[in-house]
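== Folding task for one protein ==

=== Format: two labelled lines per protein ===

==== Paired sequence and structure tokens ====
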Amino acid sequence: MSEPVFSSSAVPVSLAELIAHTSAMAVAGADLSIPIYGAAWLDKAGPGEITFLDTSESLGLLKQSTASACFITAGLAQHLSNSTLALVAENPAKSFAFAVEKIFSTPGVQKSLLGTDGINPAAFIHPEARLEQGVIVDPGAIIGPCAEIGTETLIGANSVIGRDVHIGRGCRIAPQVTISHALIGDRVILHPGARIGQSGLDFFAATGNPPGLAKLPTTGRVILQDGVEIGANATIDRGLAGDTVIGEGTRIGNLAHIAGNATIGRYCVIPAQAGLSCGRRLDDFACLDHDDFGPPMA
């Protein structure tokens, strides 16, 4: 294996291009023609690569760095080694992410993991489903009746799209995803194994002989607004009566569980393995860790 990454830049990117792309600042007179071929963490980056640091906890690594440039705050720039150019940024991690996007640029059109385009003959698409031009459907995928899928959306292998599900444009549905009772906006990303729209464990104590538990019917939906990203094997239950809503641009980590009728605002971050109970409400821009999750709410 000649390359340690699965993406590669067709041509090197100069520091000047990266600065223009990220709005970072370099010291006056710095050589901005230096070519950048890759990006790595601070302790791994070498010549021809960029890195970043946004906390003083790793200052010891700065003097040892051989990276060509480092996105860093103004207060920490003085600690860099002489061989590494400081790219001063208000948010180094954000600038680094934009730089990586520039270096490892990929076409905007979705690409199948199998390298194929169009609808694979091994997929099943119900005659009443409606797919816009440019949808990619991989082998083994199943798309149910009256489902609607927008252009440039990718449906991964063995994913199942249920009846009446609406999926917007430019979405990426990874392999082994199941979606039912859901309305999905544009540019939504669902990682492998995500489960969207299934019924939750909604029961009540039933009288009778013998006594037991009876399941409540669920009549709601899941609504994923534009730009939402759902991690691998995460679960979003549909509402019991009403909708489970995930706001625009929100990120939900791997193995997280969002119960029915929860409402999450725009641009929130839910960590991996976290859970929101039925009916919880989060305001816009909430960024939570596991200690933030309170007791269940009715």
Q: What stands out?
A: Residues 124-292 form a domain with the UDP N-Acetylglucosamine Acyltransferase; domain 1 fold (CATH 2.160.10.10). The radius of gyration is 23 Å.
